[in-house]
Amino acid sequence: MSADQEIKVYILDLGKLECDENWMVAMSTSGNKHHKNVLSHWIEIPVYAVLIDHPDGKMIFDLGCHPQANEGYWCEGLVNTFPFTFTENQRLEHQLALLNISPEDISTVILSHMHLDHIGNIHLFKHADVYVSRKEFEYAQTIVHASPDPNKHGAYVKADIEVPVKQYHLIDDDTELFAGIEFISLTGHTAGLFGLVIHLKNEGVLIFPMDAIYNQTVFGPPAKAAGLIYDSIAFFKSIEKVRQLAKKYNAQVMFPHDMEMFEKMKKAPDYYC
């Protein structure tokens, strides 16, 4: 894999979600006969997108939450479980403006999966080519159309899934999408989640597993289950796959919902290169 491409990677801060920690790490709080009424641990987790400035053009990996999530765009069940907060400066358009670009300047969108906090700004990219796992695309389409009740769609939002784009490109297997950028299958959290492995000239390799590995606690070792898993066997295989890739490339693993790590990440307009 060539690392001589001039690639820049920008982390775009798109706000935060709140949730019970048990969604991030299963059984984070649990009772026993001496402590039967254990309180949940309520936490904040970051939401971000990854802007990639590549010789083939500007592209974005994941899209955060819809800005009207709490204003009726999400169903009540999702708002109560994962309340979303952000400032005007954390809107995707404002984060891109830090780099003097707009959504119209980005013609390629890559989605790790189609959950509400990773596809929420897809409406800004109707002009774009969108790359996503075939299994993920098919499952998301199925679940949002299988019931009229939005509270039964899990973490998928029908309005997100139905936004028309220029073209969906459906990916089946690990592939090098662009020079220095690998799209790797990390199923388990969802039916078809994919992560990115980005090879940089100066700072080595960055692995973005997204929700295949929420945070350092899930990564371990030992690996731990998250609270939202589609396939538990595949989930742990994907963690091991990332572990082996990190060892192979001496890579940094960039967790998606780890507030401690997020606070240490370079954020736009700063970048990795």
Provide the helix percentage.
10-25%
Strand order of the largest sheet: 4-1-2-3-5-6-7
Sheet of most strands: 7 strands, mixed
β content, as a range?
A: 25-35%
Tell me the CATH topology.
Metallo-beta-lactamase, Chain A
Count every beta strand, where a strand is a DSSP E run of 2 or more residues. 12
CATH architecture group name = 4-Layer Sandwich
Based on helices, strands and strand pairing, what is the structural class? alpha/beta
Distance between the termini: 16 Å
Mean pLDDT across all amino acids? 95
Number of helices: 9
**In total, how many domains does the architecture comprise?**
1
CATH class categorisation: Alpha Beta
- What is the string of helix and strand elements? EHEEHEHEHEHHEEEEEHHEH
Rg computed from alpha carbons, rounded to a whole number of angstroms: 18 Å
- Low-confidence parts lasting 5 or more residues at pLDDT below 50? none
Looking at the structure, what is the overall shape?
A: globular
CATH superfamily: Ribonuclease Z/Hydroxyacylglutathione hydrolase-like
